[in-house]
Amino acid sequence: MSATLTLTDQDKATVRSAAYGAVSLLAAASDKPHKAATAGSIALTSATGRVGHVLNAKSKDIHLTGRTVAELADQVLPALAAAVALLDQQDPAEADNFRSIVLAALEAAAATSRNGQPGPVVDEMTRKVAAALHAA
C-alpha cells in the first residue's frame, strides 16, 4: 500500500464509480451484458494495490443513473478522467495501476461476447474509455 495516497470519501466514490461505470458502459455495448458485467466486476475485485483496496471496499457510494448509454457515458467518462487526475496528483504509480485495472476489466468483459471477439460497438466503447483514462 502506498503511504502517499490519501483519498477522501468523495475521492474513493469517484474512483469506484469510474471503474464500475466503465464496466457498465462496456456491458451495455455488449451482446451478453450480464456476462460482461460479471466478468468485468470480477476483474475489478481482483485488483491489487491501494486502488484495489478502494475498489474492494464495501460501500454504497456508486451512483450511476441514466436510461441510455449516452447518459451513462456522460457520467462515467468524466469520472474516469477525474479519478486518474486525483490519483496522479498523489501517486502516479497508483494512477497507472488504476488505468491497468480498468483496461483489464474491459478486456475481461469484452471476452464474453458470443464468438469471443468483441464487436465494433464494444471496440468503440473500449476506445472511448481508454481515451478518458489518458485524458488527465
Topology:
Blueprint: H1 9-29, H2 33-45, H3 49-56, H4 69-90, H5 92-110, H6 120-133
Give structural notes.
This protein is an all-alpha fold and 136 residues long. It has one domain (9-133). The chain has six helices and no strands. It has helices spanning 9-29, 33-45, 49-56, 69-90, 92-110, 120-133. Helix 1 (9-29) packs antiparallel against helix 2 (33-45) and helix 1 (9-29) crosses helix 4 (69-90). It is globular and about 45 Å long. The mean pLDDT is 92.
Keyphrases for this structure?
globular; mainly alpha; 6 helices; 0% strand; 136 residues
Beta strands, count: 0
* Rounded mean pLDDT score: 92
Terminal CA distance reads 23 Å
Instruction: Count the domains.
Output: 1
How many strands, which pairing sense, and closed or not: the largest β-sheet? none
How would you summarize this macromolecular structure in one to three sentences?
With 136 residues, this protein is mostly helical.
